[in-house]
Specification:
The complex is a heterodimer. By secondary structure, chain A is of the alpha+beta class. Chain A contains five helices and 15 strands. The chains are: A alpha+beta, B alpha+beta.
């Protein structure tokens, strides 16, 4: 059997276009379906991936299914999980991924790559839902079970869901901008590919009433740090992420939102 | 305790947030929050000023504390911070290679 011709697709998340090249037409179709609203063939990629589809169980140097290893060695980031291996060269802005033909592995690789790309630019991936209303974005951060999907599901018709799982923030001149992401949680629904200035960050807590309380900056820092997605044990990048969270809590109001699972909570979000 | 010199470790990120000095160890991402006296000691940890001198000028001069108690507390504090890898301790001046 001869080699198939490689084809590519550009997937733009957070205004960061990433080109994915593969010789598997089936996988290309999976990508187009999975990232539909985020495909932008006219964008100039900031990073390129070659994806080699290999049968499950044939991933080079595979580790346990749930284990994730992210390390920097010999000028490359090496990401390993049971279902994929990726090597990224940040200087060349090029990477290779070995994985089976499913969207799960490249979805995980995208999250890691974007967290690495964002770290030096003052941006962040935050474990939280985000929604745009009246041209302003609101982020709802919390651990699993805090209510990210619930608050997203309760959003009124005039709200646009950016994500119910992973919020994407980039630094702007006067604050932060939240972008839609295809990274879905329990809603199993990708966010809209739109952006809006971040107006507030709410730390979610479920309670017996709907209430918004102030949060001291230091407490906000601790809480937001717990919600930031960052995978690499790299001292320089950890420092960048810490600085970014410090800037975020000083520039964007952080509040505690206690709510009952009822649509009236959205009367407080204006 | 003999003369002790203290120096900030480079692999930490530190910012004053809401009046608290917050320090994150880049080695293991542990977050520390220092009170005012601990912050004064941290900021003065230049590797060449003895801890006793830092306490005398940086703590006792600013805060109403007994000098012997302040030094004992400071010695315990720097031991703890060193255990977490955010301060270096030595009985000699600590001069970092450039």
């Amino acid at each position: 059997m001869g080699s198939a011709i490689a084809q590519d697709v550009v997937i733009e998340i957070g205004a960061m276009p990433v080109l994915v090249r593969t010789s598997s037409p089936e996988f290309l179709q999976i990508l187009r379906e999975r990232y539909g609203g985020f495909v932008n063939s006219s964008a100039q990629p900031v990073f390129e991936f070659e994806v080699e589809i290999v049968p499950p169980g044939r991933i080079p140097d595979a580790i346990g299914d749930d284990d994730l290893s992210v390390r920097f060695e010999a000028g490359r980031w090496v990401l390993q999980r049971g279902d994929f291996r990726a090597e990224l060269d940040p200087a060349l802005r090029h990477g290779r991924i070995w994985q089976s033909a499913t969207p799960y592995a490249i979805d995980a690789a995208f999250r890691i790559v974007h967290s690495l790309l964002l770290a030096k630019q003052g941006g962040l991936l935050v474990h939280g839902a985000s929604v745009v209303r009246n041209g302003r974005a609101f982020l709802f951060a919390g651990v699993s079970g805090a209510g990210k999907t619930t608050i997203s599901r309760l959003a009124p018709a005039d709200a646009t869901l950016l994500t119910d799982e992973i919020s994407y923030l980039r630094r702007a001149a006067d604050g932060y901008v939240a972008f839609g992401t295809p990274f879905a949680g329990e809603l199993a629904q990708p966010g809209e590919n739109v952006r809006a200035p971040l107006a507030a960050l709410y730390l979610l807590a479920q309670g017996t009433e709907n209430r918004i309380d102030p949060v001291a900056d230091a407490d906000a820092l601790r809480a937001v740090l717990r919600s930031v997605l960052f995978f690499a044990h790299d001292s320089e990048l950890v420092g960048h992420v810490f600085d970014s969270v410090c800037n975020l809590v000083q520039r964007v109001p952080v509040r505690r939102l206690t709510f009952v699972p009822d649509f009236r909570v959205w009367e407080l979000i204006v | 305790m003999s003369t002790v010199y203290i120096a900030r470790v480079k692999e930490v990120a530190a910012r004053s947030i809401g009046g608290e000095m917050m320090i994150m160890s880049a080695r293991d991402s542990t977050l520390f929050s220092l009170n005012e006296t601990a912050t004064a000691i941290w900021q003065a940890a230049d590797g060449v000023t003895p801890l006793a001198e830092i306490v005398q000028h940086g703590v006792c001069a600013q805060f109403d504390v007994d000098p012997a108690t302040a030094l004992r507390d400071a010695e315990e504090l720097v031991e703890r911070l060193a255990q977490h890898g955010i301060l270096k301790l030595s009985d000699h001046p600590i001069v970092e290679a450039k």
